[in-house]
Design brief:
Layout lengths: L2 H20 L2 H56 L3 H110 L10 H28 L5 H7 L6 E2 L10 E2 L7
Antiparallel strand pairs: 1-2
Helix pairs in contact: 2-3, 4-5
Length: 270
């Protein structure tokens, strides 16, 4: 296939596609119906013209028949007065008129037959036009309903796609929120364990941590002193509490068999 033929085919296919897209079947049906009405109107005008011609021929026949009758009367009158020559002339003229009447009668019959044919064709065409009109309206209504349904389906399709996008956005937001919550929890745990340094400038946290650690040690010392008191191996828990206060020397209870012993703060050198 040559290049020109391919270009021509491509152009025709694209033009046909563009025409199909631009064409509205309802407008096409209305245009076809209008053309049929115009054709029906032409047929009716043809019937009217033929009927007019037939009527004109009928008038001519009537006029010639009157002339022929007049000539016949004149021929009788001429014979009655002895003018045979005038009577013969009147009869000759009457004979010529009879020939014209016969020709006009043939023409009249032809026109009448043509009129009947056109009238029948007009009636049949009128029936077809009426049927086409009803079918046209039905097709137009069906097409309009289908077009509306198509638009509704397209609208629902657009809504479905939009809702799908919204669902994806919500899912992404939930995933990001869960990720941020997990990150915040991990940072809290790292801060609590001391793995991350606090650069906020507040230096009181390490002191509080040391106090909490020492307080935990005092609780252990208190429990140990209570257990010793129950076993008779140490002072009462009150003395153990006082002995466990930081910054004060701790004196062990005097016993005959043991020398004096001093408690040291946790972390102090021996």
């Amino acid at each position: 296939m040559s290049v020109m033929k391919r270009l021509s085919m491509i152009f025709k296919s694209k033009a046909n596609k563009a025409l199909d897209k631009m064409e509205d079947p309802r407008e096409t049906l209305d245009y076809s119906y209008q053309r049929q009405l115009e054709l029906l109107q032409k047929v009716r005008r043809g019937v009217a013209d033929v009927a007019t011609s037939r009527k004109r021929v009928e008038l001519q026949i009537n006029q010639i028949q009157q002339q022929a009758k007049k000539l016949e009367d004149q021929g009788r009158k001429a014979l009655s007065v002895g003018r045979e020559d005038l009577a013969r002339e009147a009869l000759n003229r009457r004979s010529a008129l009879q020939t014209q009447i016969a020709d006009l009668q043939v023409q009249h019959n032809n026109l009448q037959g043509e009129e009947e044919k056109l009238t029948l064709a007009s009636q049949r065409l009128q029936t077809k036009v009426d049927s086409f009109r009803h079918k046209k309206e039905t097709i137009k209504a069906t097409y309009t309903a289908a077009e509306a349904q198509t638009r509704i389906n397209e609208a629902f399709s657009g809504i479905s796609e939009e809702m799908g996008d919204v669902g994806l956005a919500i899912q992404r937001a939930e995933d990001k929120t869960a990720q941020m919550q997990a990150r915040a929890g991990a940072i809290d745990e790292l801060l609590a364990s001391g793995a991350l340094d606090d650069f906020s400038g507040q230096r009181g946290d390490d002191i509080q941590a040391e106090l909490d650690r020492m307080g935990g040690g005092n609780d252990v010392e208190l429990e140990l002193a209570r257990m010793k008191a129950e076993l008779g191996q140490g002072p009462a828990p009150r003395d153990a509490i006082e002995a466990g206060q930081p910054g004060q020397p701790q004196q062990a209870p005097q016993q005959q068999s043991q020398p004096t012993q001093q408690y040291r703060q946790p972390g102090e050198g021996l």
